[in-house]
Amino acid sequence: MPWENKGSGGGGPWGSGSGGGGGHRPPDIEDMIRKSQDRMKEMIPGGGNFSGKGFIFILAVVLLFWLGSGFYRVQPNEQGIVLRFGQWTNTTEAGLNWHLPYPIETVMTPEVTTIHQINIGFSSSNTGGRLTKRDVPEESLMLTGDQNIIDIDLTLQWKIAEPGKFLFNIRDQEATVKIAAESALREIIGQTDIQPALTEARDSIQTKTQVLLQSILDQYEAGILITEVQLQNVQPPEAVIDAFDDVQRSLQDRDRARNEADRYRNDILPRARGEAQKQIQEAEAYKERLLNEATGEADRFLSVYKEYKQNPEVTKRRMYLETMQKVFQNTDKVILGTGENNVLPYLPLNELRKNSQ
Fold it and tell me: Closest Cα partner for 153 from 207, 229, 226?
């Protein structure tokens, strides 16, 4: 070492004194400085002339290394956050970049493409290659809009959208996202009845929760993007699940009976309406026919009566002849006349009938 005494004697790093029974003496500071200067002169061009080219060369080398330390590389899955005296000033993209060297500026390179996952209502762990889930009741039990308790588990995925805001606007980012997500989910569940929440409203709950959670994080200026919200398990609390299943089966039986009744109604009502319409149309046609017949008979009677008033005898005679014509039109007729000699004529009735037929 430069400060070691290379002369004879010694017994310690400082060597031994020149007298007085080998006592210690303080190091020779001037000798140490002189030896250090000699070594520096050997390294510097010009024999250590600090007032000339040697000093400028040292200064240039130091400055070059200092400026070169400002180069940094940002990977494709990262963004660079440049800090000037600890304050965020710039964001750089992937590739080779440069910033003012330390201590003026520093850089942070958070990953912005990594998808992070948070579970609400349950925790999962991988033990021995097996994924085990444990329910967390203080997170999963929630109150629905119709004052029922529901056990609901949710998984959300998020990534960094704006690294500067993500790093400096919120503290403990993952815990903040989880608390905000649980708050948003409880608000949506509090506006939904238990029956829709268990059945057809699952997609709606997921969408509304994602929109509300993103709105909360945007208000915080958290620089976080929620990529997916998915319900994992939605059921009544374990203590009442059997009773709830009975209620569900009863509701299903009710719905089935209602559907059967609706199906019967939809079958019988159109046929009944069709039959009623048919009868109405037949009645209308019958009424029209009777009215027309009655009108025709009345008109015929009035015309006959008019003729009768003008010439009653002729009308009577004509009516008598027409009536007799109708009576004898389709009957066999045999006409007998009376002669002066009162001889009974022979009429071949059988032959006459054959001829008439």
Answer: 229
